[in-house]
Amino acid sequence: xxxxxxxxxxxxxxxxxxxxxxxxxxxxxxxxxxxxxxxxxxxxxxxxxxxxxxxxxxxxxxxxxxxxxxxxxxxxxxxxxxxxxxxxxxxxxxxxxxxxxxxxxxxxxxxxxxxxxxxxxxxxxxxxxxxxxxxxxxxxxxxxxxxxxxxxxxxxxxxxxxxxxxxxxxxxxxxxxxxxxxxxxxxxxxxxxxxxxxxxxxxxxxxxxxxxxxxxxxxxxxxxxxxxxxxxxxxxxxxxxxxxxxxxxxxxxxxxxxxxxxxxxxxxxxxxxxxxxxxxxxxxxxxxxxxxxxxxxxxxxxxxxxxxxxxxxxxxxxxxxxxxxxxxxxxxxxxxxxxxxxxxxxxxxxxxxxxxxxxxxxxxxxxxxxxxxxxxxxxxxxxxxxxxxxxxxxxxxxxxxxxxxxxxxxxxxxxxxxxxxxxxxxxxxxxxxxxxxxxxxxxxxxxxxxxxxxxxxxxxxxxxxxxxxxxxxxxxxxxxxxxxxxxxxxxxxxxxxxxxxxxxxxxxxxxxxxxxxxxxxxxxxxxxxxxxxxxxxxxxxxxxxxxxxxxxxxxxxxxxxxxxxxxxxxxxxxxxxxxxxxxxxxxxxxxxxxxxx
Length: 597
Ligand code: GDP
Ligand code: MG
Known about the structure:
Elements: E1 6-13, H1 19-29, H2 35-52, E2 61-66, E3 72-78, H3 87-95, E4 99-105, H4 112-123, E5 127-133, H5 142-150, H6 154-158, E6 162-163, H7 172-182, E7 195-204, E8 208-217, E9 220-221, E10 226-228, E11 233-235, E12 239-243, E13 247-250, E14 252-253, E15 258-262, E16 276-279, E17 298-304, H8 309-321, E18 328-333, E19 337-344, H9 347-361, E20 365-367, E21 374-378, E22 384-387, E23 399-414, H10 418-427, E24 431-438, E25 441-449, H11 450-454, H12 457-464, E26 470-481, E27 483-490, E28 493-494, E29 500-503, H13 507-521, E30 529-535, E31 538-545, H14 558-574, H15 576-580, H16 587-596
Parallel strand pairs: 1-3, 1-4, 4-5, 5-6
Antiparallel strand pairs: 2-3, 7-8, 7-16, 8-15, 9-14, 10-11, 10-16, 12-13, 12-15, 17-19, 17-20, 18-19, 21-22, 21-23, 23-25, 23-26, 24-25, 27-28, 27-29, 27-30, 30-31
The structure holds guanosine-5'-diphosphate (GDP) and magnesium ion.
């Protein structure tokens, strides 16, 4: 296809505003798939997922559109990952596009993700085509939605705004016409050395790592010697092709084309979105800027329930193959036995993996309280320990000082809940660095300790904003912090898996709350057991977990009760070693720690 006849674009929208439905209509109206196939296709993908335990995450597809002017255009619809945790990935998919359809549901109007995604698109200098969807719905408020869209940006103030029903197909033809009129053709140079952007990747158990690429300059021929610039690795060039929507091999990809390359790489972590693919012998002068290696921010232990250790290991192994940010190492806890220390991009990522383990593998896992990475500077030596497991946190006597990670976050929210959102950020030690308006929405920028957003922050934000505020996070840097390790002892014996790290100033209040919760979540025994929170060797909070009721009724005689209890307690002290494994730790116990963070 001639370069000037190619259009590369994405659809950006708030969740449920109709992105997938519009994508299906576009594929149908360009005869990429038949109406029957559009259903069958989705089904197939799911079966593939089930069969291989993989996610068919991208629906990037090449379409040929026969326009009203008689010209045939190549429309590459580039899918973007949907989740806020993956801002960087979203941004790279957008960088592979020249235009974006901004889709807004007329029954809901502009929402926080509309704003957040629009900003990413504008940062990538995309031409925006605004489209109002669901005009068939009785609850549609089309004019109001149009005003909200116009208020989003000066450029949209004048733009033609299309009105469609992705469901019935009404107005979709006009949008297809607008795509070649409004969006620019790719602007790269055919004669220049090969330069392609890796904007997504995929792991196939037979073929290894497959990269999704957009050719920006030059040509990519099958078998040509190529390399990844940021990773500095030569890769094989075994197969290249396009999405129709299934993978279809070709001999050549040229400027503006969007397609894939089978890299021959077996390790999914060796390829990163954002890298530059170029000719090994005649490389392009400059790689794409802003390449970021995977940076897991949150760690937690996964432990099998129901003795399903081997099943869990297999499932984790499979999931991690397709997700370079989800990695794991084996770990052992005295309290929980054998498990895995896993890394995540953030807490939502952790939740997604947990759900997938449950839905796709039927596995329930015990998740320990998540934590971030600390840089622990040791006394006397110049050694810096990177600690992402509280169990491994060095003893306080050895520590010179500790650094914790900070993030820059951006919250998009509506005005009505602004006060509550700011209170939330305050309570989590956020420092407001910038604040601005976007239509009727407010955008807040904070610098905040990553640990503060690693746990419950997102849920709290969603709950305050009735689900609508968005959170974008980005690692900033490390900063010295006065943090301490809290150990939890039950019946005088430290339960290693319950250890966690907090700011010293928060420790007293948090541990008071924690022991109160433990009173209800630790299973009772025949005798009373103390639960203590210990910081730097000192118990700073304590509660007694009452004994099982039935035991309290021995003969109804008070003295004998206490005698019996005292006896039981003495026995238990002698048996402390054995007692360790006796305390059944349920998810509730770990959630107690989450609840108070
Ligand atoms: P996505 O999350 O943006 O991909 O949204 P979907 O395409 O999955 O659509 C979300 C829901 O809205 C689905 O139940 C669709 O059937 C429905 N939907 C999408 N477009 C329209 C439309 O034009 N009219 C109506 N009434 N419903 C629609
Ligand atoms: Mg969808």
